[in-house]
Design brief:
The structure holds 2 protein chains of 2 kinds.
Chain A lengths: L1 H7 L6 H11 L1 H22 L2 H9 L1 H23 L3 H10 L2 H33 L7 H18 L5 H30 L3 H21 L34 H18 L1 H11 L1 H6 L4 H28 L10 H11 L4 H25 L4 H15 L1 H7 L21
Helix pairs in contact in A: 3-5, 3-17, 4-5, 5-16, 6-7, 7-11, 7-14, 7-15, 7-16, 8-9, 8-10, 8-14, 8-15, 9-10, 9-14, 11-12, 11-16, 15-16, 16-17, 17-18
Chain B lengths: L4 E10 L2 E11 L4 E5 L6 H8 L7 E6 L2 E3 L4 H6 L2 E4 L11 H6 L5 E2 L3 E2 L2 H13 L15 H14 L4 E5 L7 H16 L3 E6 L2 H7 L2 E6 L2 E6 L6 H9 L17 E11 L5 E11 L3 E5 L6 H8 L7 E6 L2 E2 L5 H8 E4 L3 H5 L6 H4 L11 E2 L2 E2 L1 H14 L16 H13 L5 E5 L7 H16 L3 E5 L3 H7 L2 E6 L2 E7 L5 H8 L6
Parallel strand pairs in B: 3-10, 3-11, 6-9, 9-10, 15-22, 15-23, 18-21, 21-22
Antiparallel strand pairs in B: 1-2, 1-4, 4-5, 7-8, 11-12, 13-14, 13-16, 16-17, 19-20, 23-24
Helix pairs in contact in B: 14-15
The chains are: A mainly alpha, B alpha/beta.
């Protein structure tokens, strides 16, 4: 009866109720609750997989609960120390005033930003594709090709000042990745071949191609392993601090690029065209837009952004090209773009989340002995909740949103 | 006589909407009871409650004086209540028998399907009500009218006594409509009772025994065809006086705007869909293309608007050959297009109203300065069109998909009429709209005609064609089989042409 009464009077709502209503309808609420739920479930998983917890339950129920809490606490503490830093260490380092100790204390935080940077580029690549109704699974391959073209420009162009060498190397990465995206884009426009299949295939070609390059033309003549020569110093991205902090200018370049992608998508006629094609290709066609051209342009730009992710790693972090320099940034980026609702701001935020989780996970493994894979499970849980908002809405009894303007995306699967 | 079905005080709330407000309805045995109302009036909600698809918040349902509880279609069928939905629930690659059996299969030895005895029963039913349905035909081979009868057979096979028909005439030709009503009549004569939902006034007055009008979730009144007339019913439906007859001035025709000569167009499957068609449209006139859906109208419109290219013949717009022109070029020459499928082709439902209002002009001054979108100009434009065309919306910045059908159509009409045009293609401009919106769109179309614009009106609604057109071209099987003057044309004459019957 009380349920009924609530439904009966939708009009006489006070400000508090309206506020709660709005929060409950906001898509952001689902995202946040998905992350929270992921962390809770991840914690349970830690407890369930810990041997000590089982032993403690053998002693008594209460000590089992205690051991579970301890295990979860240790895990998330290590995750926090690994991704943001150990507050105790930071304070004592600041007190002592030893510059190396201070840098070490702050290093986890800056390293998380370093890990986030390629995620931002790669996430933007996927998001841009999604906005145009294209499912670019090929970001990983485009990232490799972009890294290869960048490293070529960064090794073989010599005697240039940084102010010229860096932009040229970045551009090389953009064009390299762009061309790798252009090919499946063109195939789709000209023949209807689905970009999902073709980008996956292009990934394999990219991996093997970069392997060939690293064993042949790009191989460091002085080395034995398939690694390129170090890039020219003039092409290295500026690092703000001394060792061990690797934090470099790439992070800010990524933020600028995210802003440019935002302007492109939402403030230009090109973006208007691409978004319309993505949201409803039939209406776009009726309105006189060129679907084929949009597809090709979008795939080129998406590939180009992926290429920048590779360029960023080469110029900012590794200063050379090695075989396995990317740990699946391109694939994580698909999930990340969805988490960020394919909006540049969302992408930056979720890239930061992924970067901090990834970086923290390494520390977590070292100090708490929790396998690094728990982070993959955690990410998977968060994403599953994002992908199935109905679960979150049911658990937390949220209201359906009136209509989600950002609910673009997956009809690329339909093969239009 | 005791009513066979009685609904008492049915109330159904959806978040923010009172879809049914204490509705009372009685259905007598052996009557055809029309439920009349605009889209969104609550007719379908009420019937879905009766059919067990929704649970009412309040109210009771009685069958033959006994209170019943329906919480699923299965319950409803058990109580003898059956429903034919507007969109048929048939499997095209199955036979009639298989479709009728579906969900209630008879078996031999528990596992093998028995098709024979149901087929015999279907034949019996078909003969009893002269439905002329062959149980062995595949659904995909049957015309829409027959498919509908299969749906009816499904109900009779399950021994339903109360039949609900949701907008049964929307998909039929005038002849098929007449046949349907003959069938309905024979059904009620043998003791069945029928509720049929519609928003078409003429049908109601011709075929119903009693009429209940619903508006805004409430019963406005119940009447009989003898006591009511079209204008009165329309006023009850809309809640204000509606003029059903448009004042059409004689056309002042000027030069040819569109010339079509021996046009041949293929459909998506590369079959000839438009076969050697020739006609022209002049400024200041409305040429109506009548025909049953699927006789080449869609493909003809696609070719004229540049969405596909003809394989033979000539298309000239304002003296310019547009055989190979792009949709954008044709738009820029001065063509407006109200597409047949407004949600798929006319709008981006997830985009804002403002963006939808510049869908084909966003790249032009003043909406863009070089490539930078001018958001303030787009917003000004939206506010202007929203007030000029009476679009009911709280804001220009909400997704167009959250508007009602009529308001969505107003967005399209507003967009297309707010730029300088010489030629207008309107495909099914009022399909699925309520009386008020239809009246509005018709008035706007005639205004444009009187401004000297050439209009090609494609519609499967014969009333609409007759009301608006100056000349009528009837399409059948990809050909225009006749072009006649609208003055003096009769429904029967055009109905026959639509069925492909050419008089000597």
């Amino acid at each position: 009866m009380s349920e009924k009464e609530k439904n009966q009077k939708p009009k006489n709502k006070d400000a508090g109720k309206i506020f709660l209503d709005e929060i409950s309808k906001s898509p952001l609420t689902v995202t946040i609750l998905a992350i929270v739920s992921g962390l809770i479930l991840g914690g349970l998983l830690v407890a369930v997989t810990s041997e000590e917890v089982y032993q403690a339950f053998g002693v008594s129920f209460w000590s089992g609960v205690q051991a579970s809490a301890d295990a979860i606490w240790a895990t998330y503490k290590a995750l926090f120390y690994g991704s943001v830093g150990n507050p105790g260490k930071i304070i004592s380092a600041l007190k002592d005033g030893d510059p190396l100790a201070i840098r070490r204390a702050f290093n986890p935080f800056f390293d998380s930003l370093v890990v986030s940077t390629p995620y931002i580029f790669a996430g933007l690549a996927v998001a841009l594709g999604f906005r145009v109704g294209l499912f670019n699974i090929g970001v990983e391959g485009q990232l490799f090709i972009g890294a290869a073209t960048t490293v070529t420009a960064a090794i073989f162009l010599k005697g240039l000042p940084s102010i010229i060498h860096i932009p040229i190397s970045l551009l090389a990465g953009f064009i390299g990745g762009g061309l790798w995206g252009f090919i499946p884009g063109w195939l789709k426009a000209a023949t209807g071949g689905h970009e999902v299949i073709n980008t996956i295939m292009m990934n394999y070609i990219a991996f093997r191609l970069s392997e060939f390059l690293l064993r042949g033309p790009l191989k460091n003549p002085e080395g034995f392993t398939p690694v390129s020569a170090p890039i020219e110093e003039s092409a290295e991205l500026f690092r703000f601090f001394d060792n061990p902090i690797r934090f470099h200018a790439g992070f800010f370049i990524a933020l600028v690029v995210a802003y440019l992608v935002y302007l492109f998508l939402f403030k230009t006629t090109w973006g208007f065209t691409l978004r319309t094609v993505g949201a409803n290709p039939r209406a776009a066609k009726y309105a006189g837009m060129n679907i084929m051209r949009s597809t090709v342009i979008a795939m080129f730009l998406s590939g180009g952004l992926a290429g920048l992710a590779g360029a960023n790693e080469v110029l900012g972090v590794n200063h050379n090209l090695a075989l396995a320099f990317s740990s699946g940034y391109g694939f994580d980026a698909i999930a990340l773009a969805l988490l960020g609702k394919n909006h540049p701001v969302g992408v930056v935020l979720s890239a930061l989340l992924f970067g901090f989780l990834r970086n923290g996970a390494i520390q977590m493994q070292l100090s708490a002995g929790i396998p690094i894979d728990i982070i993959s499970v955690l990410q998977a849980l968060i994403l599953a909740f994002i992908a199935a908002p109905a679960i979150i809405r049911t658990i937390y009894r949220l209201k359906e949103p009136d209509m989600d303007i950002d609910s673009v995306t997956l009809h690329g699967w339909g093969g239009n | 006589m005791k009513p066979i079905l009685e609904l008492k005080g049915i109330t159904k709330r959806f978040p923010g909407v009172l879809a049914n407000d204490k509705i009372n309805l009685t259905l007598n045995k052996g009557e055809i009871h029309a439920l009349l109302g605009e889209n969104g009036a609550g007719k379908s909600t009420l019937m879905n409650i009766l059919y067990g698809l929704y649970e009412p918040d309040e109210g009771e349902i009685f069958v033959e004086g006994k209170k019943i509880n329906v919480s699923s279609p299965r319950d409803a069928i058990a109580q003898g209540i059956g429903m034919v939905h507007q969109h048929f629930m048939l499997v095209p690659v199955f036979t009639v028998t298989e479709n009728v059996m579906l969900g209630d299969e008879t078996t031999k030895v528990g596992v093998f399907l028995d098709r024979k005895s149901p087929a015999a029963r279907i034949r019996e039913i078909s003969n009893e009500y002269s439905l002329a349905v062959n149980p062995d035909s595949y659904i995909k081979d049957l015309p829409v009218g027959i498919q509908q009868r299969v749906e009816i057979i499904k109900l009779l096979y399950r021994e339903a006594d109360i039949l609900i028909l949701d907008e049964p005439t929307a998909v039929l030709t005038p002849q098929e409509v007449d046949e349907l009503f003959t069938i309905m009549r024979s059904l009620v004569e043998s003791g069945k009772s029928i509720i049929f939902i519609t928003h078409k006034l003429r049908e109601v007055l011709t075929f119903a025994d009693r009429i209940t009008v619903i508006r805004g979730g409430k019963v406005v009144g119940t009447t009989t065809p003898k006591e009511a007339d079209q204008n009165q019913l329309a006023a009850m439906m809309v809640g204000r006086e509606v003029s059903l007859d448009v004042n059409k001035k004689p056309a002042e025709v000027n030069e040819k705007v569109l010339e079509v000569e021996n046009l041949v167009v293929l459909d998506d499957l590369n079959h000839v869909a438009v076969n050697n068609v020739s006609f022209d449209v002049r400024g200041g006139e409305i040429l109506g293309i009548a025909g049953v859906q699927g006789n080449g109208q869609t493909e003809l419109v696609k070719a004229i608007t540049g969405l596909s290219h003809p394989i033979d013949g000539k298309l000239k717009l304002m003296g310019r050959n547009i055989n190979k022109a792009s949709p954008r070029l044709i738009t820029e020459i001065g063509t407006a297009h109200i597409p047949e499928d407004r949600q798929q082709d006319g709008l981006v439902l997830t985009a804002t109203i403002a963006d939808n209002l510049v869908l084909n002009t966003y790249y032009l001054d003043p909406f863009a300065k070089s490539v930078i979108v001018q958001e303030d100009k787009i917003l000004d434009n939206a506010e202007k069109i929203i007030s000029n065309f009476d679009v009911r919306t709280p804001s220009p910045l909400i997704p167009v998909g959250s508007l009602s059908g009529g308001n969505q159509q107003k967005v399209i009409v507003g967009r297309e009429f707010s730029r300088p045009i010489k030629f207008l293609v309107a495909s099914q401009p009022t399909r699925g709209l309520d009386v008020g919106s239809i009246e509005y769109i018709h008035t706007r179309l005639l205004e444009k005609r009187d401004d000297g614009i050439a209009i090609l009106l494609v519609s499967t609604e014969l009333d609409e064609i007759l009301k608006l057109s100056d000349r009528i071209a009837v399409m059948f099987d990809g050909k225009i089989i006749s072009i006649i003057d609208a003055e003096g044309a009769t429904k029967e004459q055009i109905g026959l042409l639509m069925a492909g019957v050419v008089e000597a």
